[in-house]
Design goal:
The model has no long low-confidence stretch (mean pLDDT 94). This protein has 302 residues and is α/β, with parallel strands linked by helices. The strands form 3 sheets. It has a 6-stranded parallel sheet. A 3-stranded parallel sheet has the order 3-2-4, with helices on both faces. A two-stranded antiparallel sheet has the order 9-10. 38% of the residues lie in helices and 18% in strands.
Length: 302
């Protein structure tokens, strides 16, 4: 058996096409979803990521408010900007790109964002609503994982799911989403991590294994059963290689948390790295921004 590859790029493209059509319909009602991005400093990875988000907004017709601040910006000035964006009716979503430079209090900044504009889904208000099953903005990467599974015909109800990783960004919220009593939940979920005893004993019984530990080759072929569905959230930089477009420029060699080549011979479905979960994160951010605009306009998104 060789696994079918889950193409995250294609699923993301399909969802963006749906969102683009939805944004066009909203504009007919004079509703323009708006996303404000706040970038402090010159971190190359953050700059690249923010640029990708701005391009995606332009592609879908979403208003993009670009706020690029110097690395020595004070906490007071940053908080003043968040307060201003909270009150701006053109802005439906606020994204503060992390990490922030040393000296800035990330927790204070994230708490200052209006939960109604928290399209990252990290504010404690939205996290709490998610846990108790109320309507909330769902964190983008976990929500992207759910969409990949659903749109590839994977049945979640009653499935045995093992998540390897307990981060606040992926593992914990994903577990909460999968156990909810709704159409995208009703799974039986085990959360494991690097301190779990007999990790392989847990993963071998799983119908779905989701690896989000941040460590290469955490999940190997002997740790999964035949026919398993494998979602690899890990993105680990393991070296560099010359760029295909420009041999004089070096680019990162990326590897997931799963031994892809070996595990794909046992799995029924598997995501690659890159090209699997990654493309879904920005797409779900755009999804949340459109949902926020609809809520602000009093439109029921269901």
């Amino acid at each position: 058996m060789t696994a079918q590859i889950i193409d995250g790029k294609q699923v993301a493209a399909d969802m963006r096409a749906e969102l683009k059509a939805e944004v066009a319909e909203l504009k007919k009602k004079e509703i323009v979803p708006g996303l404000a991005v706040v970038l402090v400093g010159e971190d190359p990875a953050s700059k690249s990521y923010v640029t990708a988000k701005e391009r995606a907004c332009e592609e879908l017709g979403i208003y993009s408010d670009d706020n690029r601040l110097a690395a020595d910006t004070s906490q007071k000035d940053l908080m003043a900007l968040i307060k201003k964006l909270n009150k701006d009716p053109k802005i439906n979503g606020i994204l503060v790109q992390l990490p922030l430079p040393d000296g800035l209090n990330e927790a204070e900044v994230l708490l200052a964002i209006d939960p109604a504009k928290d399209v990252d889904g990290f504010h404690p208000v939205n996290v709490g609503k998610m846990v108790v099953g109320e309507k909330a903005f769902l964190p983008c990467t976990p929500h992207g994982v759910i969409q990949l599974l659903i749109r590839n015909g994977v049945k979640l109800e009653g499935a045995e799911v093992v998540i390897v990783g307990r981060s606040n960004i992926v593992g914990k919220p994903l577990a909460n989403m999968l156990i909810q009593k709704n159409a995208t939940g009703n799974a039986t979920v085990t959360v494991c991590h690097t301190r779990t005893r007999n990790l392989a004993g847990h993963t071998r019984r799983a119908d779905i294994v989701i690896a989000a530990a941040g460590r290469p080759d955490t999940v190997t072929a002997d740790m999964v059963k035949d026919g398993v569905v494998v979602i690899d959230v890990g993105v680990n930089r393991v070296g560099e290689k010359p760029s295909k477009k420009d041999p004089n420029r070096m680019v990162a060699i990326l590897k997931g948390d799963v031994d892809f080549e070996a595990v794909k011979e046992k799995a029924s479905l598997i995501t690659p790295v890159p090209g699997g979960v990654g493309p879904m994160t920005i797409t779900m951010l755009l999804y949340n921004t459109v949902e926020s605009a609809k809520r602000a306009a009093g439109i029921d998104e269901n």
